[in-house]
Amino acid sequence: MSEHPGVPTARLEALYQELILDHYRRPRNKGALEAATARAAIKNPLCGDEIEVQIAMEGDRLADVRFVGRGCSISQSSASMMTELVRGRSAAEVEELIACAGAMLRGDAAAALDDRLGEMRALAGVARFPTRHRCATLAWEALLRALRSHAVGAGA
Ligand code: ZN
Fold it and tell me: What is the 127 CA–ligand 1 centroid distance (Å)?
């Protein structure tokens, strides 16, 4: 075996690149969410990315999630892929996915092979480029903040 786990082949790398560009050009779930119950915005001054994640919780379930903002292809595609992955899940599942994506983007090989991350795994290579790391994690950080702020608001 010449392949290392977590390190994509050239062919897979090309597929990943296409997937990232596809999400960048046709972002899923982009635009304001009218029924938002919580939102969080984060900027990445290193790259100029700005992402605001808006969520609508129904009880413990993330009923809907959208994002607004602008930035590089990595930040936008990460946000787009994220919304598709987390919509409809319980808050606990969403937090698990956030942790898993964070681990993958830090270079965790096991996380990079985790099926639950779906298309998001196209961004695993970002771990090799520390300057782009924040671009990929931005939307996920914003999602976590929105989730937590909702939890705080709901308890008050
Ligand atoms: Zn960026």
Answer: 14
Give the pTM.
Answer: 0.91
Q: How far is the CA of 54 from the centre of ligand 1 (A)?
A: 20
Closest by CA to 100, choosing from 84, 113, 87, is 113
**Which has more confidence, 152 or 29?**
29
Across the chain, mean pLDDT equals 92
Distance CA 68, CA 118 (A): 22
**What's the rounded Cα separation, in Å, for the pair 90 and 126?**
27
Measured between alpha carbons, how far is 16 from 119 in angstroms, rounded to an integer?
Answer: 8
Ligand 1: centre distance to CA 118 (Å):
21
